Amino acid sequence: MKKSTIWLLAIIMALTFSVLLYMQMSYIENMVKMRNEQFSEAVKRSLYAVSTQLEQDETKRYLAEDIEENQKRLLTIELGSTAIVSQQKTYVSPDGSSISTFNIQEYTFSLPEKKRPGSSGSISSTYKDMQEVLKNQYLYQKGLLENVILNILSTASNRPILERVDTEMLSQYLQAELRNNGLNIPFQYAILNPKSKIMYKSAGYNPESNATRYTITLFPNDPSKRQNQLAVYFPTKKDYIFDSIQFSIPSFAFTLVLLVTFIFTIAKLFRQKKLTEMKNDFINNMTHEFKTPISTISLAAQMLKDPSVAKSPDMFAHISTVINDETKRLRFQVEKVLQMSMFERQKTMMKLSILDVNDLIAGVLSTFKLKVEQLGGSIDADLDADDAIVEVDEMHFTNVIFNLLDNAVKYAREEAPLQLYVRTLITGNKVVIEVKDNGIGIKKEDLKKIFEKFYRVSTGNVHNVKGFGLGLAYVHKIVTDLKGTIRAESELNKGTTFIITLPLKNK
């Protein structure tokens, strides 16, 4: 699959998921907003109903008190007579600016014995008497209600709020009205005076600073300076709102899972694309590496067929040496290719043996020293770690040190003689091996990738440094399988240091 195709699919899917997530987020946001509005509307309806109920209770209480008072003051009047008792009531306006006096007439009456229905007399006379009774009853009730209204207007607001409101009944009213409006959840309430001071609060009333409180004016007909407030707080409101929209959470979560899966898949596609490109580079490099020794061996074999060569011992020896060297070179490259099979297995097959790491490194340095000196470089060693006994596979670990030294030769700077430095030291129960060079160094962005299979640091020309990108990956795998660690420290144009740490083994 082309890289452009992968990018096109990635962009389309990213846009699709973005729009889908945006729509779901908008839907959830609108749902929360709508549920909050519905909740607030239900609370307001409930509080209005409670306020109205408290006003009705107060009116009933005043009416009952006034009836009781008037019954005590009724005069016994002679049958057939009607008494009109005048009483003055004073009303103070809500703002206290004016005072008015009213005359309230209270009516008492009785029907004369001789006029009672069923007694002697004409039907028309009886009907007129009944009409008179009803009229008198109406006038009495009207005067009674006017008296109650004036009592409420003139005296009710002067009474303390806790005398006007039965807190137990208030709690019952709130619970009933909230339930009628579909809000069967816990609540706390408080009664506040005009200065917002708490006059009464229910047990547990302690709203948070950012919590929403719903308020309504109790007895709104009172003067503005004497109006009290009822404040209600719902401690589980957030849970109530969340429960109402939780059905949409799974769909949002599944969309996120799909998005993460998509991102992971695209990342894997790019990684596989990169590995494919690396393998193609590997094949090209392998072809180039094999082509040279094969051509040289083929040319040398043709020269051996020449009779004149057979007569010249020096020429014969030279050609034999060339064939031998190129055969070794070809065998070394084949071994490099065969190392690829190691990366497909969970663990490398090793023949572990206990040895002194200083002796092993010294043997590699003695073999490699000639090659470095031929290039005009030098190797210094400081193998002073005492009792550096480790358990390793001798062949594989020798290859590890050889690969690190060989990399130093490959990436040496042309303007500076190659300098290699190897040392060992003991740190706790581990031995540390450092291989340092003064080569071209490695960029920071490449340091994290140098141990990946087929990865090669770019040097501007794909063939200027021979190799397949397997050397450091092989080193990392061997050290890891030996329960050790390896890391690299580098500074561009100054050199690189590889640091290997292996566990010590008791003698």
Task: Give an overview of the whole structure.
The protein has 507 residues and is α+β, with helices and mostly antiparallel strands. Among the domains are: 247-340, Signal transduction histidine kinase, dimerisation/phosphotransfer (DHp) domain (Helix Hairpins, Orthogonal Bundle), CATH 1.10.287.130; 348-503, Heat Shock Protein 90 (2-Layer Sandwich), CATH 3.30.565.10. Helix content is 53%, strand content 18%. The chain is built from 12 helices and 13 strands. The chain has helices spanning 3-73, 123-155, 161-164, 167-180, 237-245, 249-304, 307-311, 313-338, 357-374, 394-410, 444-447, 471-481; strands spanning 82-92, 99-109, 188-192, 198-201, 213-218, 228-233, 352-356, 378-383, 389-393, 419-427, 430-437, 485-491, 495-503. The strands form 4 sheets. The protein has a 5-stranded mixed sheet with strand order 8-10-11-13-12, covered by helices on one side. A 4-stranded antiparallel sheet has the order 4-3-6-5, covered by helices on one side. α1 (3-73) crosses α2 and α10 (394-410) runs antiparallel to α12. The longest helix is centred in the first third of the chain and has 71 residues, at 3-73. Mean pLDDT is 78; it is low at 75-94, 96-120 and 460-464.
